[in-house]
Amino acid sequence: MQHSFGQFELDEAARKLSLSGVGQKIQPLVFDLLVYLVRNAGRVVPKDELMDALWPDVIVTEASLQRVVSLTRKALAAGGLQDAIHSYVRHGYRFAIDEPGLGYVRPASLQGDDMLAEARRLAALRDWSAAAKLFAHLADNEDLSPADVDLWALVVECGGRPTEAIPVLARAVAAHVEAGDLARAARSAVTLAKIQAERGSGAVAEGWLERAASLLSQSPDDATQAYLLWMRSRLASSGGRPEDALQLASAAYAIAENCDDPGLRALTLTYKGFFNLALGKIDEGSEQQNHAAAIALSSQVDPITGSLVYCNILWSCRTYADWPRARQWSEGFESWCTASFAQTSGACDLHRAEVVAAQQILPEALTCINEALPKLSAEESWSLGEGFRVRGDIFAMIGDLTSARADYDQAYALGWDAEPGNAVLLFETGDLDGALAALDRALQGMSWFHLQRRGNLLVNAACIAARGGRSAQASIYLNEIDAQPERWRQPATQALIAETKAALCEPGDPNGNRLLLLARQLWTSAGVEYHAARVRLQLASALLRSGDVSGAKVEITAAERSARHLGSRRLEEEAATLRRSFSRESQPPGDGSMQELTL
């Protein structure tokens, strides 16, 4: 039996894999795995089934299978299909070169053997790089229809290079106008506005939106009108007009509901939920975003729309400090990217970096954000300051406070604030007034970014004030939080509230230790290992002061284990200092030797 996929041909009888007619050298087990997966294309094949097929009557570990899968992906990489084998944690692997529709952009035809037909075919296979190269060769081809120019712009954007799509989209607008299809011209103009806004050119974005509105006034189209209103909602929000943004997003979704475009419905509903979250309507906003994601996952949305839906949800989770939800959506987004052959944007890498920093390993998070920053600089410069804020937080958790300070300063230089990390660093280096002033300035912001983070800013301000002996000021911050308990119920916020109340307790008050225990449990339930370990060290100190030596030992041991796992030398040093302090205090009278704490 012979199989064809991408530019490969797999001949089972001849045991041969060819790429564009050229035979490829691969190991026998790699060939066998590829054959088995291709025969079962579209199905998740369990790991046990694959191991039985590849190694009959031989006991092997999953590591052997993982190695063969890795070698198979390398073989497929020669044809740009290294992502064709999808991994499913704790389940197995699936071979999938899916050919879903590309949203509102569809190839005119996939017939013929010429370069244009091949470019269309590669676009349908989601081989973005190869398709973009062919379209670039066809730039002067008079047979390139307006629909083909739209498709060209899409494959460039899907390949992770939206800025390079700008001249192509401008050409698409002109081509559609010349062809008399003003609605399609308006659609391309809105996409141009989106890319310009994301690269920080707000005035240019406004200009393209006005062009789109003018075209639509001559040729009304509901789907394009919804798309236009959606983009206007984004600009309203970034301009500090959240109520206007919600109204525009709601109007966009109301129109999209009656359009035969599930991607548009998902997109407009996601942003409606996003702005509801910013305005404190937590349950409503979360439900709308979850519904939007379900629409996107159950439909053949194009990679750009899918990325916007996921990216928007992750922004909400991060700014709202909802780390359990952030982890779930981050994992779902990575699976979606693999299944859709989508290239992750700088913003997507930014989200992943902060989620990894909160819940996994700090050096890995640092690698993620270092990969994100060049992408943000080139394609999404509006969020570059947020990238430096996130990297500053990662440096602070690792223990490189000099680099953290430099990144926080860079975030401010780019027009963002770097709170609450900057304020925490100011407080820890002795500037209590500066820390609280920085948070108060951030609390005055009216953009979605400030509104969604308000609870996190308030509770950090309360905690810093309490730890700095400003109990009256801490109570003011806590009162606003207490006035809207349903808005700030995420575990991370509740953990900081418990820390604040513990700091407000009088020395020797046993309720302080109970509150720290609660904070540690809440951080653990949120999956934020760094802060759980940080509170463990606070709790260990408090337990030692109250004479609970065994309890202190348990907390120090757990904190040290977390510090090693996370790669936080800061926590390791703090734990070591606490250990040495305890050793000196627990040294028996008359014993001149240093006793190490035995755990």
From TrEMBL:
Renumbered to this chain, region (Disordered) spans: 575-599
Which InterPro entries is this protein grouped with?
OmpR/PhoB-type_DNA-bd, Sig_transdc_resp-reg_C-effctor, TPR-like_helical_dom_sf, WH-like_DNA-bd_sf
- Give the CDD domains listed for this entry: trans_reg_C
* UniProt xrefs under SMART domains: Trans_reg_C
PROSITE patterns on file? OMPR_PHOB
The protein's UniProt keywords, in alphabetical order, are: DNA-binding
The entry's DNA-binding region feature spans 1-97
Name of protein: Winged helix-turn-helix domain-containing protein
Q: What Pfam families does UniProt report for this protein, alphabetically?
A: Trans_reg_C
Which SUPFAM superfamilies does this entry report, sorted A to Z?
Answer: C-terminal effector domain of the bipartite response regulators, TPR-like
- Keyword DNA-binding listed? The answer is yes
Give all residue intervals belonging to the OmpR/PhoB-type domain: 1-97
